[in-house]
């Protein structure tokens, strides 16, 4: 891994074995998860899963998201998540499914001194609203989904650059580049001064190989093609054509 990187790498996922592998390898500075990742990982008991993660990873930031869609229940869930451990950040979506702003809830939770991870942000207006509501005496995370911005055909760099400036106006507001799509996103985030970027296990695995000579990557690619060709028994020429020495 490139030791010159200043951006913190957080692992994104809900497969406990992958999380512990990344934790033991020392490649990451924290972990995030969400309901969709938990569904994909087959997590059945959310509270039990979260508590096991906190028990096995007690010394790095961990983000767990509320499930409710109404703010009163979200607040109760947030209070319970807060009890999981001192290293836990409570993920609050910037809106509910009705498009109603979560800012009033964010303010209430900040008044209680809770560390939050404001998630599902895609506009700079949302960044401004979230940061304005944060308590400067508490460490918080503002998660901007740069990958999903890019999925709409927009360049996420101007959005992230502006978000860096907004977050720097509030002490304790850490900007997170969410939904990374490729390893180079790590370098883009680093150059912009983004505080944190979430990476999938696949991207984290690639980070371990950073700096590999391109000529070697080319050779490894050809060897990979050849291995699959032999394994599948692919052939373009018939045996007779292979043995034809005329070259016709």
What does this structure look like?
This protein is of the alpha/beta class. Helices cover 47% and strands 15% of the residues. It contains 12 helices and 8 strands. The chain has an 8-stranded parallel β-barrel, surrounded by 8 helices. Helix 1 links the parallel strand 1 and strand 2 (30-32). Helix 6 runs parallel beside helix 8. The chain is elongated, with a radius of gyration of 22 Å.
Topology:
Blueprint (H helix, E strand, L loop, with lengths): L7 E5 L3 H10 L4 E3 L2 H7 L4 H11 L5 E4 L5 H12 L5 E6 L9 H9 L4 E6 L2 H10 L6 E5 L1 H6 L4 H12 L5 E5 L6 H9 L3 E4 L1 H7 L6 H19 L6 H5 L5
Helix pairs in contact: 6-8
Distance between the termini: 51 Å
Low-pLDDT stretches = none
**Strand order in space, largest sheet:** 1-2-3-4-5-6-7-8
For this structure, the quaternary state is single chain
Approximately how much beta-strand content do the residues carry? 15-25%
Q: Residue share in helices?
A: 40-55%
Q: Report the mean per-residue pLDDT as an integer.
A: 94
Q: Tell me the number of strands.
A: 8
- The helix count comes to 12
Descriptors for this entry?
248 residues, alpha/beta, 8-stranded parallel beta barrel
Summarize the model shown.
This protein is α/β, with parallel strands linked by helices and about 250 residues long. The protein has helices at about 15-25, 35-40, 45-55, 70-80, 105-110, 125-135, 145-150, 155-165, 185-190, 200-205, 215-230, 240-245; strands at about 10, 30, 60-65, 90-95, 115-120, 140-145, 175, 195-200. α1 links the parallel β1 and β2 (about 30).
């Amino acid at each position: 891994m490139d030791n010159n990187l200043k951006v913190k790498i957080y692992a994104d996922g809900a497969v406990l074995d992958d999380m512990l592998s990344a934790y033991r390898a020392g490649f990451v500075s924290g972990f995030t998860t969400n309901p969709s990742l938990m569904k994909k990982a087959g997590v059945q008991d959310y509270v039990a899963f979260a508590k096991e993660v906190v028990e096995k990873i007690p010394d790095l930031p961990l983000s767990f998201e509320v499930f409710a869609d109404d703010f009163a229940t979200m607040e109760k869930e947030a209070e319970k998540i807060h009890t999981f451990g001192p290293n836990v950040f409570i993920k609050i979506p910037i809106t509910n499914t009705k498009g109603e702003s979560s800012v009033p809830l964010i303010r209430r939770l900040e008044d209680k001194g809770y560390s939050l991870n404001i998630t599902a942000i895609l506009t700079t207006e949302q960044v401004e609203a979230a940061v304005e509501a944060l308590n400067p005496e508490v460490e918080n995370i503002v998660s901007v989904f740069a990958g999903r911005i890019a999925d709409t055909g927009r360049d996420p760099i101007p959005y992230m650059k502006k978000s860096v400036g907004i977050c720097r106006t509030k002490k304790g507001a850490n900007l997170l580049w969410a939904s990374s799509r490729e390893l180079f996103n790590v370098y883009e985030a680093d150059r912009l001064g983004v505080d944190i970027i979430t990476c999938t296990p696949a991207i984290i695995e690639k980070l371990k190989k950073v700096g590999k000579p391109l000529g070697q990557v080319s050779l490894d690619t050809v060897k990979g093609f050849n291995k699959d060709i032999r394994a599948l028994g692919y052939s373009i020429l018939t045996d007779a054509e292979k043995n034809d020495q005329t070259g016709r």
